[in-house]
Amino acid sequence: MCMAAVMSNQMGWMSDQEMQQTMKLIEQAKLPCKAPESMTVEKFLDLMSVDKKVLDGVLRLVLMKGIGKSLVTSDYTPDDLNKAIKQSAAT
Fold it and tell me: Which of 6, 14, 26, 41 is the residue whose CA sits 20 to 30 A from 69?
């Protein structure tokens, strides 16, 4: 969820304030917002490639257009995804 908030923010779909609020709520629920150190971009992509949201070889992601406004989309670039994974691993 944190990575989705980061990616939604970097794509301009979610404000900085909404992203921070989302991450704060997740942390308050004692859920992780940081990827395990052992997770590389390649490992994330390998695991995501077998996700149930892959349709016709295309990975669809659950992203947000604001708090409470989620959507399933493939409207992103590989660079968008790689950047979000790297940023989420570094937070």
Answer: 41
